[in-house]
Amino acid sequence: MENPVEQELSATEVGAWYDRFGDLYSLTMGDSMHLGMWDGGVRPDPGRALSSDEAWQELTQAQDRWTDELISELALVGEGRRVLDIGCGTGRPTVRLARTTGVQATGITASRTQTAQAAERAARAGLADHIDFTTGDAMHLPFPDASFDGAWAIESFAHFADRLLALREAWRVLRPGGRLVLADCYEASSFTDEEVRLFRTGFALPRLALSPGAYADLAREAGFTVDRVRDKTGEFGPTYDLISLVYAGRRPRIADLLGPEAASQLDLAYPLVLELCRTKMGYTAVTATKPGF
After folding, report:
1. Could you tell me the pLDDT band of residue 108, with boundaries at 50, 70 and 90?
2. How does pLDDT run across 147-176, given as a tens digit for each residue?
3. Could you report the per-residue pLDDT of 197-234, keeping only the tens digit for each?
4. How many CB atoms lie under 10 A from the CB of residue 51?
């Protein structure tokens, strides 16, 4: 079974990375900082010229569509239900989940900065009584056994040094019959060592999963029953074109955020990362259940 741990970063190191660079990702990658989804992988009006702000907004809307699909996949509604967002980032999907379904949501992230930003987002949405956020390690979740009815992880497992351990922790905190929805990237074509290092430098993660079925295999090993595996690679392509537009239009703000020297280095690395995403990265979504209900 696959459980890549080479060149791992601890949760503390990943959190520190996002404390430092999270604002860059928010600035360039949409408000959810996840990939967006388009039916058939085609934007509705691909020929229309967009400003950087329009590109950022379209990307955010595509991220919301994917979040809504995952909400439907999780299939939990009602104030009596508790859902854990594993790797919640700045909380936009968590807030959308709570607003749409009425569940009591908890988000966990390794970044203290993101924890504060997510709590502020929930307060602005008037949902502070339905959502709480905490800083912690997904491989050592600070929650009792069988305390959640469902959990999801949107592009967070790629950061975990021991993905099997993180899945076993998700299994532990779910109640029998609880559902896990996991969506993340994998190497559709094998990365070279240089490309692995590039991704590690750009995103603070070990090597991506090596196949579309890798997460499903690990979920089974952790004790889950895998209900469904979907390959969503073909629907996310426009993400990378929009990020390029956003980056170009917001370049002065990036320089203000990082400083001129770091921004110049990013000018060289960013196109390489986006091209790698376009040509060699895939995307999978796994739905699994903890047996016993």
Report:
1. very high
2. 999 999 999 999 999 999 999 999 999 999
3. 988 888 888 899 999 999 999 999 999 999 999 999 99
4. 11
3-state SS, one letter per residue, for the chain: CCCCCCCCCCHHHHHHHHHHHHHHHHHHCCCCCCCCCCHHHCCCCCCCCCCHHHHHHHHHHHHHHHHHHHHHHHCCCCCCCEEEEECCCCCHHHHHHHHHHCCEEEEEECCHHHHHHHHHHHHHCCCCCCEEEEECECCECCCCCCCEEEEEEECCHHHCCCHHHHHHHHHHHEEEEEEEEEEEEEECCCCCHHHHHHHHHHHCCCCCECCCCHHHHHHHHHCCEEEEEEECHHHCCHHHHHHHHHHHHCHHHHHHHHCHHHHHHHHHHHHHHHHHHHHHEEEEEEEEECCCC
Q: How many CB atoms lie within 10 A of CB 286?
A: 28
Record the pTM. 0.94
CB 113 within 8 A of CB 18: yes
CA–CA dist 163, 149 (Å, integer): 21
User: Edge-to-edge strand order for the sheet containing 104-109?
Assistant: 131-135, 104-109, 82-86, 148-154, 174-187, 281-289, 225-231
Q: Which residues contact 268 (CB under 8 A, 6 or more apart)?
A: none
The per-residue pLDDT for 3 is 36
